[in-house]
C-alpha cells in the first residue's frame, strides 16, 4: 500500500490548519452503532454501548437482545460488561474518574467503577421518582436530569450527591434539545441549562429563567465550548451559529447547502465546531468557512479540550487545530 503524503492529514480554513489523524482501525467487527446508545470517555478513554430499546429489533438478532452495557477500549476491543438491573436507563456517561454514571427512569442513579467495586447509588429525589426521568446531560463531575413534567434536577457532584431542583421554565412541550454549562464555566459558579424551546433558547438556573429572544430556531443541537465562553447552535435545517454564552454577541454562521438536521455537534478546540450529518462530518471555522469529510457510515463525536474525536464501526480519528 502506498504511503500517504505527509500533507494529506492537514486541512486549512482561512489561515488556520487542522490535522485529521487516524488513531485506530476499530476491532469491534463491523458493529452497527446505529442500534446502540453511546457514551465515550474523554482523553481517549473507554466506550460504553447500550442497545437502543427505542429501535425495533429483527427477530433472531440475539446479540441485540442483550440489555447489558458493553464496554470497549478506544480501539474497539471488548473490555467487559456492566449489568445495570432495574428500571430502564434514561442516560449514561463517564465522569472524570472514569466511572460510568447511569441514570435510570425511576430517578435512581448508579455509579460503576471499572475496578469492579460495588456500584454506588443515590436517588434524584421524590419528584424524579414519582414523575420519572426522560433525559440527562452530564459534565465531568455532575449531571442534570429532566423529569417527565419538564423540570430540571441538578447534582453538582455525584461523589457527594445533593439533588437540587432548578427554576421552572414552564415548558409546554419537550424541548428540541438542551445542554448544560458546567458550574466551573459560569460567572455565577452554578450550573446553567440552555434549552431550545420554539424558535428561541432559554437559560435556566436555580435562580430563574431568561429568554434569550432568538428567532432563528428551532435548534436541533447545542454545544458549549471547552472555555464556556461560546455556544454553537445548529438549526433543524443545518444552519450553524456561534454566539457568546451570554447571547450578547453573534460571532459567525454557516449554512449548509442541504437542509438537514445534524446528528450531533462538538467543539474542535475553542474556535471551530464539527457537526455530523449522516456520513458527513463538517468542520466549520471561525469565519464561517467549512471543510467536509466523508465516511462510510455515520460518525459519533467526542469533544476534547483541544479537539474532537470521530469514530464509527470501522475507524477512530482525531481532529485538532
Give your account of this protein's structure.
This is Vacuolar protein. The strands form 7 sheets. Strands 1-2-29-28-27 form a 5-stranded antiparallel β-sheet, with no helix packed on it. Strands 3-4-5-6 form a 4-stranded antiparallel β-sheet, with no helix packed on it. Strands 7-8-9-10 form a 4-stranded antiparallel β-sheet. The protein is globular. The mean pLDDT is 91. It has one helix at residues 126-131, and strands at residues 10-13, 16-25, 36-40, 47-51, 69-72, 78-82, 89-94, 99-104, 108-113, 120-123, 133-138, 143-147, 152-155, 164-165, 177-181, 192-197, 200-204, 209-211, 219-224, 230-235, 239-244, 250-255, 264-267, 273-277, 280-284, 290-294, 300-303, 307-311, 315-320. The protein has 321 residues and is mostly beta strands.
Amino acid at each position: 500500500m502506498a504511503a500517504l503524503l505527509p500533507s494529506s492529514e492537514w486541512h486549512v480554513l482561512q489561515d488556520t490548519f487542522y490535522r485529521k489523524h487516524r488513531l485506530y482501525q476499530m476491532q469491534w467487527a463491523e458493529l452497527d452503532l446505529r442500534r446502540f446508545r453511546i457514551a465515550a470517555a474523554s482523553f481517549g478513554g473507554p466506550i460504553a454501548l447500550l442497545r437502543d430499546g427505542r429501535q425495533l429489533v429483527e427477530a433472531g438478532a440475539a446479540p441485540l437482545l442483550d440489555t447489558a452495557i458493553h464496554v470497549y477500549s478506544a480501539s474497539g476491543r471488548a473490555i467487559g460488561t456492566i449489568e445495570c438491573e432495574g428500571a430502564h436507563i434514561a442516560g449514561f456517561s463517564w465522569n472524570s474518574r472514569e466511572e460510568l454514571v447511569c441514570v435510570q427512569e425511576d430517578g435512581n442513579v448508579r455509579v460503576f467503577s471499572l475496578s469492579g467495586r460495588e456500584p454506588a447509588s443515590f436517588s434524584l429525589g421524590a419528584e424524579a421518582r414519582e414523575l420519572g426521568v426522560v433525559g440527562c446531560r452530564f459534565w465531568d463531575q455532575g449531571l442534570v436530569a429532566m423529569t417527565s413534567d419538564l423540570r430540571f434536577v441538578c447534582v453538582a457532584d455525584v461523589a457527594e450527591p445533593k439533588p437540587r431542583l432548578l427554576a421552572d421554565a414552564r415548558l409546554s412541550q419537550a424541548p428540541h434539545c438542551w445542554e448544560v454549562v458546567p458550574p466551573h464555566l459560569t460567572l455565577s459558579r452554578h450550573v446553567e441549562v440552555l434549552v431550545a424551546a420554539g424558535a428561541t433558547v432559554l437559560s435556566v438556573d436555580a435562580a430563574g429563567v431568561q429568554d434569550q429572544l432568538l428567532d432563528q430556531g428551532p435548534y436541533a443541537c447545542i454545544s458549549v465550548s471547552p472555555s464556556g465562553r461560546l455556544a454553537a447552535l445548529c438549526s433543524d435545517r443545518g444552519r450553524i451559529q456561534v454566539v457568546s454564552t451570554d447571547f450578547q454577541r453573534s460571532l459567525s454562521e454557516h449554512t449548509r447547502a442541504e437542509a438537514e438536521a445534524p446528528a450531533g455537534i462538538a467543539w474542535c478546540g475553542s474556535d471551530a465546531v464539527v457537526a455530523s450529518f449522516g456520513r458527513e462530518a463538517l468542520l466549520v471555522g471561525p469565519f464561517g468557512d467549512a471543510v467536509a469529510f466523508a465516511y462510510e457510515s455515520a460518525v459519533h463525536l467526542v469533544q476534547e479540550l483541544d479537539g474532537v474525536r470521530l469514530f464509527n464501526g470501522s475507524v477512530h480519528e482525531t481532529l485538532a487545530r
